[in-house]
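ZP: hey, is the NDP complex queued? I don't see it on the tracker
AM: it wasn't, my bad. submitting now with these inputs:
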Amino acid sequence: MKSALIIGITGQDGAYLAKLLADKGYTVAGTSRDAPMANTAGLAALGVADRVAIHSASLTDFRGLWQVIEKVDPDEVYNLAGQSSVGLSFEQPLETFESVAVATINILELLRLLGKPIRLYNACSSECFGNSPEPASEDTPFKPRSPYAVAKAASYWSVANYREAYGLYACSGILTNHESPLRPARFVTRKIVSTACRIAAGSGERLSLGNTGVVRDWGWAGEYVDAMWRMLQQDAPEDFLIATGKSYSLQDFTAQVFAELGLDHTEHVDVNSGLYRPTDILVSRADPSKARERLGWQATMAMPEVARAMVKAEREQTSPKENLA
Ligand code: NDP
C-alpha cells in the first residue's frame, strides 16, 4: 500500500486528490497550517474527511515539515499549498512569494537531504505563460504578469533545478484554471455561480465583474488531480501542461451560468473597472497534447460542462458526494 502526503490538503485540489488517492488504496495524510483549526469542509463534502490524517505544518518551517515527513513516511508528496489567488497576490506579493516559491525550495531541500526515493509533484500554473494567444506548450517561455505567476515560475525552475542537479523525482504540473463547487467565493467563477443562483432565487442583487473579455481555459478539478497522480507514476519525472485545450471568455462563462438558470446575463451584470487587475492576462490558450500522448490523460469537461456542474451543485446544495465527484 502506498502512502501520500498532500501539502495543502484542505484546499480545492487537496480534497479532490485526497479522495482520488484514498479510493486507490493509498494511506493519505495532509498538512494544514493549523491542523486543529483546519477547514475540512471540502474533504467532508467529498466524503473523505475521516479517511485522512491532518498534521500542522508551516510551509517555510524546515524542522516542522521534516517531522511530518518522517512521521508519514510518504512515497509521494504533492505540494498544493500556498497563497493561490492571482488577485490577492497584488496585495500580498511577499506572502505569495514566500508561501509558493520559498516553500517549494524548503520542500526540495528537505527531500534532497532525506535522500529517500520520495516522488514530488509541484503545483505550477499556466499563469506563468502570461498572454498566450497561440496555445502554450511545455516549451513556451514564461512571461509572468502577476506576483502569483512570478512566484510559481520560481517554484517551477527550482523543481527543474533540483531534478537536474540532484536527480530528485520531482516534477511540476502547469495547470490551467480548474474549478468545482469547492472553489472559495473569492474566485470569480464561484462568485458568478453563487450570485447568479441568488438572483435566480429572487435576491434582486446585481453581479459586479471586472474585465469580462479575458479568455481562459477552464477545466474540472476532479479531473485535473488525476493528471497530478499520473505524473508521479511515470518512469522518469517530467513537467506537463494540463488543460482542456478549449478557451472561452469570462463573458462566455457568465452567459453560460445565467443561461443554465434560464436568465439573460446582460440584464444582471455590471462591469466595474475598479475590479480590473494592475496587469492581467488577456488571452490564455493551452495545448495539452503531451499529457494526452504520454499520460493518457484528457479532460472530458470544458467550460460549458464545468459551469453546468457548478450551477447544479450550488442549486441543490445537498448530497454533495453525488454532485461533486
Ligand atoms: P486553495 O487555495 O484551494 O488551497 C491551497 C491551500 O494552501 C489552502 O487550503 C491553505 O491551507 C493553504 N494556504 C492558503 N494560503 C496560504 C498561505 N498564504 N500560506 C500558506 N498556505 C496557504 O488552492 P487550490 O486547491 O485551488 O490549488 C492547489 C494548488 O494549485 C495551489 O498551489 C494553486 O496555486 C495551484 N493552481 C491552482 C489552479 C486552480 O485553478 N485551482 C490553477 C493552477 C495552479 P490551510 O489554510 O489549511 O493551511
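AM: back. The longest strand covers residues 119-125.
ZP: great, adding it to the tracker
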